[in-house]
């Protein structure tokens, strides 16, 4: 069972020692189902396809603007010390710099990225919409060891230069320490819940189930 940075915001909730909220508990069940070979149906597939289609154009814009070359990872990167944490950033510029790309299907979200994604690059934002991105980027920096992450939002439906925006976010060690503790708590809950479910049906391990 793995916890991924794209879902870190779901488990943050109100912070350490606070009970996990409904969103976190639903994410836990999704992970457990996956460990049992049951994949949750992907809703809004067209939105995912939109992002996949336009992400290369966003990366190309970043490369041209910053005179950089971006490597797109082919597989997930595992945390060096914590086996249940893994993820794949959208791009790696170098050992200290990664990128996170958003190509929103809903143009309103790109407008939010244009207007709301402006804050101290080292401090967690108070805007809930932006907080999700913050924890995702801190998570990828935690996994890769990067010191900064450039957030990119691209929507070709907007005219130049409003179709593209970027902002640098710096690694925040205090938030990463908090994130590590929260992930540890969440994984402990995952293991206990999975064990409880399997024991109810006479299975000691997930491998005992005939998929």
Task: Give an account of the 3D structure.
The protein has 6 helices and 6 strands; from the N terminus they run αααββββααββα. The chain is an alpha+beta fold and 211 residues long. It has a single domain (5-208), classed as Lambda Exonuclease, Chain A (Alpha-Beta Complex), CATH 3.90.320.10. Strands 3-4-5-6 form a 4-stranded mixed beta sheet. A hairpin with a 7-residue loop joins strand 1 and strand 2 (86-87). Helix 2 (22-35) crosses helix 6 (173-200). The longest helix is centred in the last third of the chain and has 28 residues, at 173-200. It is globular. The mean pLDDT is 87.
Write a concise synopsis of the structure shown.
It contains 6 helices and 6 strands.
Could you give the count of β-strands? 6
Question: Would you list the SSEs in sequence order as H and E?
Answer: HHHEEEEHHEEH
What percentage of the residues does DSSP assign to strands (E)?
Answer: 5-15%
What is the arithmetic mean of pLDDT? Answer: 87
Structural class: alpha+beta
Q: What separation lies between the terminal Cα atoms?
A: 16 Å
Give the overall shape.
Answer: globular
Please state the CA-atom Rg, rounded to the nearest Å: 18 Å
According to CATH, what is the class? Answer: Alpha Beta
CATH third-tier fold name: Lambda Exonuclease, Chain A
């Amino acid at each position: 069972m793995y916890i991924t940075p794209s879902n870190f915001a779901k488990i943050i909730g109100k912070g350490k020692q606070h009970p996990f909220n409904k969103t976190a508990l639903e994410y836990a069940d999704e992970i457990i189902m996956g460990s049992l070979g049951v994949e949750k149906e992907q809703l809004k597939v067209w939105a995912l396809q939109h992002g996949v289609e336009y992400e290369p154009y966003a990366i190309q814009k970043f490369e041209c603007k910053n005179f950089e070359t971006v490597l797109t990872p082919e597989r997930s990167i595992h945390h060096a010390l914590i086996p249940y944490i893994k993820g794949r950033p959208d791009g790696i510029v170098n050992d200290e710099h990664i990128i996170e790309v958003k190509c929103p299907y809903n143009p309103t979200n790109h407008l939010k990225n244009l207007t709301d994604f402006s804050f101290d690059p080292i401090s967690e934002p108070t805007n809930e919409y932006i907080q999700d991105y913050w924890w995702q980027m801190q998570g990828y920096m935690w996994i890769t060891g990067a010191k900064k992450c450039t957030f990119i939002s691209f929507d070709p439906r907007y005219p130049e230069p409003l179709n593209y925006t970027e902002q640098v976010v710096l690694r925040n060690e205090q938030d990463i320490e908090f994130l590590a503790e929260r992930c540890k708590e969440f994984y402990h809950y995952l293991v206990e819940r999975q064990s409880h479910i399997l024991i109810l049906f006479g299975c000691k391990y997930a491998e005992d189930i005939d998929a």
